[in-house]
Amino acid sequence: MKKLLTLGTALILAMSVLAGCSGSNSDEKVYQIATDTTFAPFEFQNKDGDYVGVDIELLAAIAEDQGFKYELQPLGFNAAVAALESNQADGVIAGMSITDDRKLKYDFSAAYYDSGVVMAVSASNDTIKSYEDLRGQKVAVKTGTEGASFAESIKDTYGFELVYFDESPFMYEDVKTGNTVACFEDYPVMGYGITQGNGLKMVTEMEKGSSYGFAVLKGKNAELLEKFDAGLENIKESGKYQEIIDKYISAE
Ligand code: GLN
């Protein structure tokens, strides 16, 4: 009886070792990470069509530091968040603001970049200089964003109407063609866009906004979030984080 037990134990041990081996090869988890399509300097395509930007390089550096694999899904901001909610993505990195509302539904990493919301108008517009000038006008926002929430919060006070877009470039185009007189966008993104000649300008101060974080669904993928945070700390210590920021965002 004792012998049988020992043999059985040995078999189970051998089987679990084998299972462990195959698990570390073919079954290795590849995290699906959703991102925005065009949100420079955080994610955008270079001339070769490759995705580059602060978020893209931070994720790559963190994954390398922590030894995890991932696939990038550039879906658009609202679609990326929807993919997270329907379990089609394990995480989102998309210049996503850590807001109190979102903290009810998602778990966020430590903040990795400070942001805020700002209004922008066409560079050739001389009539819109404040929110008061928006009365009776149409204003462009991007669906599901902090900029849209801010515009929604003041639209009745200032009496303007909102037009929704899924992607930042479409929103800017609409302002330039004059269908809408202004848009609300994240300050670091609008600031970068203006230096890149997007044809818009800022005429008001930045509104205080939330910092960016990497998000997983609440209570899910805790190990991925831990790795992100640990990796973020490591690349801050090594100087890699600052190197990535400096590459895309010029110091003021
Ligand atoms: N930071 C904004 C938000 O989280 C916009 C993000 C984006 O458009 N990619 O709502």
TrEMBL record:
This is Polar amino acid transport system substrate-binding protein. Coiled coil: none annotated. Pfam families: SBP_bac_3 (PF00497). It comes from the Bacteria. CDD domains: PBP2_GlnP. It comes from Parasporobacterium paucivorans DSM 15970. InterPro entries: Solute-binding_3/MltF_N. Residues 30-252 form the Solute-binding protein family 3/N-terminal domain. Residues 1-19 form the signal peptide. PROSITE patterns: PROKAR_LIPOPROTEIN. Keywords: Signal. Gene3D superfamilies: Periplasmic binding protein-like II.
